[in-house]
Inverse folding.
């Protein structure tokens, strides 16, 4: 698609107006006054995906997200308390798709030097990107946690008390709530984004340890 200065479009963050176009970038302005330079290729794909989603049957739309029930927020509280680390392993041929998902979840473009993102060369045998949440916990903690999230496998890591959750949808959902990739978690910022109706579930997960 072709962007035009002065016209309105939208992405997962909301509607925006195109202020300028320069090479492969567009300068956009959101309703709240914020302005950003964004990739025209990425924004074009996001815009087209939004239009396609709106024309898809409701039953298909639910397949693209994760079920955000009380168990999800319980897990979030647990992961914040454990200061979980998020990592993503991305083969070169899946990078553009990963960038799109990143933008959908965070509202900003993936930086070239983003910590916790491991880009594999074209020769890699990885078929798609793999997202991982890693943390330390006792076997007793894991048994309690699995009662709340029986549908999300938790696997043992190499180190004594290390555990991994390999789940792309969960990883991206956590980004929506301010989880950081490749660094420590800001518990206050994350907690502020939790819906009031699920605050108790989040707190229960944080207090499990």
């Amino acid at each position: 698609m072709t962007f035009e200065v002065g016209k309105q479009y939208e992405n997962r963050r909301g509607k925006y107006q195109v202020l300028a176009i320069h090479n492969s970038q567009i300068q956009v302005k959101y309703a709240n006054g914020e302005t950003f330079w964004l990739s025209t290729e990425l924004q074009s794909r996001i815009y087209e995906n939004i239009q396609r989603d709106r024309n898809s049957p409701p039953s298909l739309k639910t397949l693209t997200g994760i079920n955000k029930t009380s168990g999800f927020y319980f897990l979030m509280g647990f992961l914040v308390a454990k200061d979980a680390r998020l990592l993503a392993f991305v083969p070169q041929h899946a990078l553009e798709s990963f960038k799109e998902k990143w933008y959908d979840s965070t509202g900003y473009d993936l930086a070239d030097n983003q910590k916790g993102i491991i880009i594999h060369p074209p020769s890699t045998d990885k078929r798609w990107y793999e997202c991982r949440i890693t943390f330390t916990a006792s076997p007793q903690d894991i048994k309690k946690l699995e009662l709340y999230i029986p549908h999300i496998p938790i696997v043992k890591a190499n180190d004594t008390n290390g555990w991994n959750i390999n789940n792309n949808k969960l990883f991206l959902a956590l980004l929506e709530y301010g989880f950081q990739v490749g660094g420590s978690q800001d518990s206050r910022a994350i907690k502020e984004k939790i819906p009031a109706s699920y605050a108790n579930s989040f707190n229960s997960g944080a207090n499990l340890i």
